[in-house]
Specification:
12% of the residues lie in helices and 34% in strands. The protein is mainly beta. The chain has a single domain, classed as M1 Pyruvate Kinase, Domain 3. The protein has an eight-stranded mixed beta sheet. Strands 4-3-10 form a three-stranded antiparallel beta sheet, with no helix packed on it. Helix 1 links the parallel strand 5 and strand 6. The longest helix is centred in the middle third of the chain and has 11 residues. The chain is globular.
């Protein structure tokens, strides 16, 4: 897998603005330090215990902008780790390493009405089936912008 981390985005609490960071510590069984789900403050914390980290492809964001003429930024989709060159849909049930941390893809992270409401843009339907990946953190470690992806199984 030749993909890399394009951006890392965190929100400290439910509905809070997304902020870019250059590096984050991923804690096994808990989440990304400084993010709402790490602090158990995310909207879907009770519904999705494996939502420790979320990923999205920058290519999906670029396609929405291009194909639907919508001004969209990575922060609009409220995912944590933005990738380039990674087919995230193929990582459901798979283990992969990003930086020093190890993750397992749990399920696709389909866009929802809440995300669309916070973005204030009609992005739910254009992102259907390409809204990213929910992942569990299996081994703690740091993840930095520019880090490569390595599929383990």
């Amino acid at each position: 897998m030749d993909g890399t981390v394009e951006a890392i985005l965190l929100a400290p609490s439910e509905g809070a603005a997304i902020s870019p960071v250059k590096e984050v510590v991923a804690h096994a069984g808990r989440g990304l330090e400084g993010d709402r789900y790490y602090e158990h403050k995310g909207k879907f914390k009770k519904l999705e215990p494996k939502r420790q980290a979320t990923f999205i492809e920058i290519e999906a964001i670029e396609a929405v902008a291009r194909d639907h003429d919508i001004e969209i930024e990575a922060a609009d989709v409220r995912r944590n780790i933005v990738t380039r060159g990674v087919a995230l849909n193929h990582l459901v049930g798979k283990t992969f390493k990003v930086g020093d941390a190890t993750f397992r893809g749990i399920k696709l992270c389909e866009p929802c009405d809440y995300m669309q409401k916070l973005a204030g843009k009609p992005i739910r339907e254009p992102l259907k089936h390409r809204g990213g990946l929910n992942a569990e953190i299996l081994e703690s470690g740091s993840v930095k912008v520019g880090d490569p992806f390595q599929r383990i199984d």
